[in-house]
Amino acid sequence: MAQNPPDLRPDLARARVTDAPRHGQPTIGMVSLGCPKALVDSERILTRLRAEGYGISPDYSGADAVIVNTCGFLDSAKAESLDAIGEALAENGRVIVTGCLGAEPDYITGAHPKVLAVTGPHQYEQVLDAVHGAVPPAPDPFIDLLPATGVSLTPRHYSYLKISEGCNHKCKFCIIPDMRGRLASRPHRAVMREAEKLVEAGVKELLVISQDTSAYGTDWKDREAKAPILDLARDLGTLGAWVRLHYVYPYPHVRDLIPLMETGGVLPYLDIPFQHAHPDTLRRMARPAAAARTLDEIAAWRAACPSITLRSTFIVGYPGETEAEFQTLLDWLDEAQLDRVGCFQYENVDGARSNALPDHVPAEVKQDRWDRFMAKSQAISEAKLAAKVGTRIEVIVDSIEEDAATCRTKGDAPEIDGNLFIDERFDTLSPGDIVTVTVDEASEYDLWGQIEKPRT
Fold it and tell me: Where does this protein hold [4Fe-4S] cluster 1 (predicted)?
């Protein structure tokens, strides 16, 4: 369990701790796999443990036990989680498993019978009980102090802000509702209180996450607003930090978020998982099958906020996908001209309804379609970034290396989008600085720029 690298990935998170443990203090290690939502769960667990007097170890050898927060979304993710559990057992021997894969305890104990305990996703109390049983707490009230912002697994200048759990959709390829339950939104005041504390502690960018961000608050039976995400986004936009919205399902009320982006309260960035474009494929996915209307919405968003960056993810090789359906996706991508695009080859997931669909696509065909999709999206990205050469833009500094400062524009989320590099006159910069640069070079996914006047 190595120290966090400067370019920390959420799916490889290790606790970054600088405080040396006091004599006799019990210590816990954490391996956090999967999505940023799981990363927030890991941070909450570690924060609770710190409050009880536990130290957080950045390596296996210094930990009295290790928690592995797993991912169970795809079969490949399950395999990675089992590998991580095996590594922790080999390196430490005392392992507690939690997270999405924890919803299948027999699957875990069948592969690793020596784990100490298995709990499901966001079951914080059960994790703490398991830690107490394996490593009894020994707090010192005069020494053990909890930082005001808790324990963070991300760099200090940005933080994930989870606003809800679960999902009410029934996409055939997804088992998230089975693992994490139906939509359960956090109270508005609780989200704002957490966001305010983060900004007060120096966080410059809030990454709003959930399984279905635009559905936030629609599970409240006594709500006054039809779409509570609008009020939450508006309030978050008053805190003075960058506010980035992830996993925004394209409901009609999303159009009402766009004016907030144009006025600067919320970053002009939408992360919307379209998944496909052919109506028949979308129906087999149990997704809304209105790709043409989606193009109209995209045009309206861009008209209202010309600087908006649109990111999405897609699945190729879904069961029954024909060459004609795939070509429709490519043609749609040509029209949509999305700025940031991710693509996955379909995988069966244990428990997903899509497994039973007929006409599964051969692996070689899925690979060919993925290659063609990525070539198309890369060409679009290259052209869009080339058009930015000569423009002035604001960027946030993520890290400083010997040869350059690695930064992101307002259109780039950490770890999943591109970077902007400053390779001259960057010696006075620090992570979290927001500076204006002139773009002087572009590649398929990244930019290079020259620094202007810094603003901290």
Answer: 35, 71, 100
The pLDDT of residue 455: 56
Q: How far apart are CA 41 and CA 124, in angstroms?
A: 8
Residues 6+ apart with CB under 8 A from 106: none
For residue 438, what is the enclosing H or E element?
A: strand 434-442
Q: Please give the distance of CA 300 from its chain centroid, rounded to a whole number.
A: 26
Phi, psi of 226 (to 5 degrees): -70, -35
State the Cα–Cα distance between residues 389 and 356, nearest whole angstrom: 49
Domains along the chain? 10-134 (3.40.50.12160), 158-386 (3.80.30.20), 392-455 (2.40.50.140)
Give pTM, 2 decimals: 0.77
Which parts of the chain register pLDDT below 50? Answer: 1-18, 141-148
The reply, when asked if residue 35 is annotated as ligand binding, is yes
Residue 174 assigned ligand-binding role: yes
* Count of beta carbons in the 10 Å neighbourhood of residue 20: 8
Helix axes 188-200, 228-236, angle to 10 degrees: 20
